[in-house]
Structure formats: C-alpha cells, structure tokens
Amino acid sequence: MPTKTARRPLGRILGTTAALATATLVVTACSSPAATTSAASGAAPTPERPRVGVILGGGGESGVAWETAVLAALKDKARLTRDNVDVVVGTSAGAIAGAYFSAVDDLDQVVEAQRAGKGVSAPVPAGKGDPIPKDVMAALGSTQGTIEERGRRIGAMAMKAKTPISSQDLVTYVGSALPAKDWPALDFRATSVNAETGRTVLWKKSDGVPLGAAVASSAAVPGFLPAIEIDGQHYTDAPRATFSAELVKEKKLDAIVYIGMPTPSLSNTVEEEALAALEDNGLKVVRITGGEGTDKLIRDALNPKIKPLAVTLGLRDGADAAKNVAALLDN
Prior knowledge:
By secondary structure, the protein is an alpha/beta fold. The protein has 12 helices and 8 strands. α2 links the parallel β1 and β2 (87-90). α2 (60-78) packs parallel to α12 (307-330) and α7 (167-177) packs across α8.
C-alpha cells in the first residue's frame, strides 16, 4: 500500500497573501555564513534503495523556513539525504529550500540561522497595500483558459510592468543569496513559466542557465519583480502545469516526498491530483503539508518575524512524517 501522510485540501486561502508569498523565496535566510557546500551526489540506486524524488512548493519567508526545517528533521530522523534522493524540484520558495538541501552539508546550521532571523532581505520592499497591480492580481486569480493561456496573459503583464529592480540586478541578488554559485551535483531543478509562451519549465544543470537566473525566474512575481530574461526569452512566477508524471517517467522514480503548505494555485504548482493518479498506479507518496498552526504561516508569509515559528512547526512536521519517509526509503 502507498505510504502517505494525511491529505489536506488545497483550497483557496488568502489569495493576495499567497500570491505575494512566492515573491519572497529571496527574502529568507538563504546565505548562512556557517553553511558549507559539497559536491556529493545521490548514491546509485540498488535493489535495497528505491529511486526517490523530492518536490517542494512555495510559501514566502515562512515557507522557506518551514520547508528547510522539515528537510532538516527528515535528514536527522528519516535519513533523507542527498545520498538517497535522485531529483529535487523546487517552486519559488521551494527553489531556495531545494538549493539548500541539494548543496549544504549542515542543514541544522541553516535552520538555526533562520530561527535567529538572519539572512538576506527582499531586494525591494513590499510596501503597504498590494504591491502587485490589481489587473495582475485578477489575472493570477483567474481560471479562464488553459494554464498556458493564463501564463501568456500574465507573462505579457509581467514584461510590461515597471519594477524597482532590473532583471539582471535580481539575478545577481539571488545568485549572491544561494549557498553555491554553481549547480549542485544532485539533480536539482527550479520551476518557472515562459512569459511569451506560457509553458512551464523545469530548469536543470544541463540547460546551461546560471543557477541564480533559474532560481530568480522561479521567484519573479509578475508586477512586483521583473520577468527574468534568459536567452532572449522571459520567465515569470505564473501558474505552473503539473510535472510530476513526466518527472517520474524520466527519472524512473519509485517514490516522491511532497513538501508544501496548502496555498492557492496562483503561482505554485498544484501537484496533488497528479500525485494521486500516480499513487493509484503504484507510486509511493508521502505528503507533508503542515499540521496545526501552519495556517498562521500562510497568513503571515511575508513577515520575517514569523520565521522562528515556521522553523518550530517545520521541525515538528518533519518529525511527524519521519516514520513514513523512513518506511518509503526502506522499501
């Protein structure tokens, strides 16, 4: 039988706050000076080790702190490490947490830095009210058309929007906040959306795109942060198409650990339905979507003062899921 934690409804939760949450994968403790990097990659799968993928959702300042803490707890209590993971995919805040998991030796140090409120801040202040223009917010909340059609509409707005920071400056900023300049040896991917075509992309090392640019494009909330120019095209933080089925096929995965608080699908990939279908066909899935109190993290996702609480809840939620994750790794 598939191994999983209790599912939670995705729901429509605080649309404006959730949209802003993805703007802040760059506003977290992403550059802990105590963190060290390693070129270690996943160990070769054996009959005793299944092929495992980790998928990370968005969630702002609180999301990165929570996800990093969940991963730290799973590393300590379930032996979920780079040596038994074959691919990590991060969306927005998850791109930062994924970069840390994929490259940093001591996640506990990163978690403690988050708890202490250390790290970089947003490259531009959110200010009062809604920093995302009303027409962009309406487009982000709309369900009219296909995902790609919505992506093109939002992408056009993103490319026209006047923002207080340039694409190149944002890439430079994000690159300086990452734990390493180069792509990790572990297969790490950052999701984004092509503003011209509306198509979802999963940037990876072999694409030849700088890591900072790939992660910045995952966080480029339209109307607030600039669309990121990569090879003559532009990329933004618009609604993603699901990708887990293709990922499972490409990497021949036996199991997925999904980590993400339930937020509306304004800019996060909604993978739950795709994962459920894969699970029905034999894929082992563990979902970690947050326990009691994580609704506070969603409501106050942009507030750096909530990071200590996010760390506490993340360590708890990771510990609560450790038994299921350990069983998944042992199968």
